[in-house]
Amino acid sequence: MAEIKNSLIKIEHNPTQCGECSIRRLTLFHGVAESELSWTSEYRSQQYTVQARKEIYREGQTSEFMFTVYHGWFATYKTLGNGRRQILRIALPGDMLGFQANLEGAMNHSAVSLTDAVLCAFSRQQMPELLRKNLSVAKRLSELNARDMNICQSRLLTIGQQSAIERIAFFCAELFYRIKSIYNEKEKNEIYFPLSQEDIGDATGLTKIHVNRTLKTMREKGLLEIASRSLKVLDLKALCELCGFDPSSIQTYRLY
Question: Which sign, positive or negative, has the C-alpha torsion 92, 93, 94, 98?
Fold first, then answer.
């Protein structure tokens, strides 16, 4: 447990204030009035930096905090009996980490940073009080959870019923649309993509060799290309049609 705590480095000077947060439209506090932000920010315990490839909490252990991703990429995952890893979700700026039904119990999954990142930490013990006192926060939490469940259910369907190329197409289309919506870069066909082929395999239920072979096929078909920590979508319409991806499944990322 000490190893995980040491991976989080407290920002001692000039932590981001909630009223100045550049990603607030994506977060738990999206619907909170400006006049109430100083009150809600009292529930944020700390702001931390974390280096790439560091665990921030581990399945089976307790965690003092839940987090909002301010900057960076994370993966939540479960470890199987044979030691293999199944990635459940990729968390991006605005997403929450560490929320579960039993806030007092041990974590039912693990989380690891995929890039250097910044996290806003909230006490798990204080979260029920915050939700009771501000209905807009409770509503927003339900929206975020519903969106994540929708994405996870759709991806589960691809893993269980679709081919390797369809699985990877869905996974990449989801992340492409999410990143484009977060940064409002609608014209570009390329995004930063820090995932390894092993990460992609752990998210789609494929071996690294199978991922490598499938990505080569997708490049030859003119669908997408992944190289040098970048994902370039060559034919977005064909990519989405191939896997049945519906962009409306990430609608809580839209500006409103």
Answer: positive
What pLDDT, in 10s, does the model give residues 20-67? Answer: 888 888 888 887 877 777 777 778 888 999 999 999 999 999 999 999
For residue 78, the SS3 value is: strand
**In angstroms, how far is CA 163 from the centroid of its own chain?**
24
> What value does the mean pLDDT take over residues 211-234?
97
Indicate the pairing of strand 96-97 with strand 65-71: antiparallel
Domain ranges across the chain: 2-145, 162-253
CATH of domain 2-145: 2.60.120.10
Indicate the pTM of the whole model.
0.90
Does domain 162-253 fall into CATH 1.10.4030.10? no
**Which 8-state DSSP code applies to residue 17?**
P
